[in-house]
Amino acid sequence: MKILRFGAVGIAAALTLTACSGGDAGTGTASGGSQGAEIRVWLVGTDTPDEAREYLTTTFEKENPGSTLTIEEQSWTGLVDKLTTALSSSDSPDVVEVGNTQAATFTSAGFFAPLDDIAEDLGGDDLLPGFVKAGTWEDTFYAAPYYAGSRIVFYSEQVLGGAPVPTTLDEYVATAKSLKTADRSGLWFPGQDWYNALPFVWENGGFIAEPDEDGTWEAGFSSPGGIKGLTQVQDLMVNASNAPKDGDEAELQVPFCAGQTTFLSAPNWIRWSIQAPADAEAPGCPDTFGADLKAFPLPGTQAGTTAKVFAGGSNVAVATKSGDVDLAKKALTILLSQEYQTILAENSMIPARKSLAAALPDDEFTQASAAAAANAELTPATPKWGDVEAQKVIQDALVQIAQGGDVETIAQQLDAQIESILNG
Amino acid sequence: MSSTTLQTAPPDAAPAPRTRRAPTATRLLPWLLLAPSLAALVVITGYPLVRMLWLSLHEYERAQLLGVPAPFVGLDNYVATLTDARFWTVTARSFVFMLVCVVLTITVGTLVALLLMKLGRVMRLVLSLGLLLAWAMPPLAAMLVWGWIFDSQYGVANHLLTSLTGNDWMGHLWLIDPVSFFAVAALVIVWGAIPFVAFTLYAGFTQVPGEVLEAAQLDGASAGQRFFRVQVPYVRTIYVVLIVLSMIWDLKVFTQIFVLQGIGGIKSETSTLGVYIYEMGMAQGHYGAASAIAVIFTVIMLAISAYYVRATVKEEQL
Q1: CA closest to A111 among chain B residues
Q2: In which region does residue B139 sit, left (phi positive, over 0), alpha (psi from -120 to 50) or beta (all else)?
Q3: What number does CATH give the domain A37-148+312-365?
Q4: Fewest CB within 10 angstroms: A80, A346, A421, B202, which?
Q5: Residue A22: pLDDT band by 50, 70, 90 thresholds?
Q6: How confident is the model at residue A342 (pLDDT cuts 50, 70, 90)?
Q7: Does the domain made of A149-311+381-422 have the CATH classification 3.40.50.2300?
Q8: Does the pLDDT value for residue A2 go beyond 50?
Q9: Per-domain residue ranges for chain B?
């Protein structure tokens, strides 16, 4: 017993010592020469191409000899919960990617280290303004833009046949409805896909929520424009789509590759999933429906315009509890560097620096995406917005709309819920 | 059953030390033997419990996780919870769901236990293995498989129903209607709970003396009478334990509901207490409010267990 106990004390002491020395190394680099620190970077999903990952690791290790950088890939599902736990623990990652609409949840609660001192190195005024706003809280800059993207409408020429590509939103709805058969949707529109429902609300003059003069939020799904937009959404979900009425927007390449839909509105980079090799781990259909893949930006109410769409994308930030904030900032600077952002642009992701847009490939998917992004809208700028997403109130309302519920009643209930969360 | 013997021990043992003092070592020995489990309980259950009580009395949000002091708010979190209509809806829903699951689990578990009694050696082994596998499967893995079974487009449930009934079931959404959602959830939960109930009851039934059953049969008791008048009374205490445990397990169910909500359905109409606490705490960062709900939930659980403890103690004293 005694021997065992002394052994345990010894191990515990050894652990404490190593923990201390780890901490020492951290503070040591803060004052000067970096020696042997490890930086952990959390990237989310598979969106970041391998080329960029490699560039980040090698560049960082070359610029900071002795230190290492590890990329840990996280999943979008449950990201806010996981970040909350990890960023407040003693084993926090150093640099993290977070969805642009989720950023305020963390910037407002002190999870991220201020970046004002390196804002110019990161790109300054060249950064995407909407994303800078999303990463700023009470005039302090906490989370830099990482990349942006927007949804565009994909179709396969062989499926669309001779039918003309719609030029207005009304035409789009009419075409999608007319193309629906028992086995094939005109438009794949699962009930929970709120990102694709928002353009209809915005285009008809509705809004998600806006602050009053006294700062209280007023939700706008039950405004006349909101009702009109949601009625269009219901028309599409019921009369143009065979997608599950309670399904979400994950793995959208699967129904497309199975030939179950004519139109598919999805982020522009889903192209890579659709055209992935047939023997890949997540197979695409490069030889069938992916062979003649085309895309266009969602048209607006007037011919020749594009619809206001949801601005998707990510922000990146340094964790307050990082063992070595200064070294983590160096890693962040690489993520925002000309070279790194050019790699992202070449892979069809809209880069965080506006000046690099020229590096985007000249294919129709990227062009369509850039056209859509020019008219992109964000969710309300309040940290409580994260609660609205966490409670899935919009998704729940849309599922009821997809089932043919009364749009006006559902919209009023939805607005009441959103207002109670944002003003609570 | 071991718990009941432990509880009866103190009254018998108590008078002894009073008459003649036992040596210190003898008096300390029980505590020494208990020490490891007590230490584990304090660390694993005690500390979180105290922390939960503390949290429930403070305004504790995400910012507090990073060291911002948490203001003391007294019973505000409790008042907010108890006056929130959503809390009562979720609680009522959880209780109804729990009752359905417990009745199903105990009924089917009993039937499987009786089947185990009647089966021959080989078939009993096969059935036991099947039960063990169902029991050994982690709930999360099981949920993913069940989720696929009830998938609206590719699920085997819709496929089987289509080929059996001739009607078109493909595309049927099992999770969109709350009642149907809970039917699927109950199926999965009961499926996972039956093995334990069946094995325990089977162990109990084998302890019923054969001669008593034989005597009852000679006296002209039917199979049903023998079951309800002889076998069930013999294993009554086992039933009490199983029912109370099932009530607690089914009330605090989390994984199954949480995963099913990710697959489909309407979140606001299908949350049970466990999921509700998670939504409030982890998903939205209102840790103080979530702790208040958790404390209320714990009190409910304690009330259920207290009934069981009292019932067993009373039984032993008779």
Answers
A1: B66
A2: alpha
A3: 3.40.190.10
A4: A346
A5: very low
A6: very high
A7: no
A8: no
A9: 42-317
Task: Indicate where chain A has its CATH 3.40.190.10 domain(s).
Answer: 37-148+312-365, 149-311+381-422
pLDDT in tens, A258-284: 999 999 999 887 888 898 888 887 888
Question: Which residues of chain B neighbour A399 with C-beta distances below 8 Å?
Answer: 176, 266
Going by pLDDT thresholds of 50, 70 and 90, the confidence category of residue A19 is: very low
CB pair distance less than 8 Å for A105 and B268: no
Structure tokens at A47: 């969106």
The alpha carbon of residue B257 is apart from the nearest alpha carbon of chain A, in Å, by: 15
For B285, the closest of A84, A110, A242 (CB atoms) is: A84
Chain A residue whose CA is closest to B61: A109
Overall fold of domain B42-317:
MetI-like fold (1.10.3720)
CB A203 within 8 A of CB A297: no
> CA nearest B151 in A: which residue?
A244
Percent of chain A with pLDDT strictly greater than 70: 92
Asked whether B267 and B261 are in contact (CB, 8 A), the reply is yes
Any idea of the CA torsion for A216, A221, B280, B152, to the nearest 10 degrees? -170
Span A124-151, average pLDDT = 90
Chain B environment of A106 (Cβ under 8 Å): 62
Q: Could you give the CA distance from residue A56 to residue A72 in angstroms, rounded to a whole number?
A: 13
Q: pLDDT per residue over B191-239, tens digit each?
A: 999 999 999 999 999 999 999 999 999 999 898 999 999 999 999 889 9
Q: What is the model's pLDDT at position B18?
A: 52
Residue with tokens 């005039």: A139
Whether this model's ipTM surpasses 0.85 comes out as: no
Q: Which amino acid is at A109?
A: A
Give the residues across from A40 on adjacent strands: A70
Q: Residue A399 and residue A392: Cα distance in Å, rounded?
A: 11
Q: How far is CA A283 from CA A253, A271, A280, A340, in A?
A: 9, 12, 5, 28
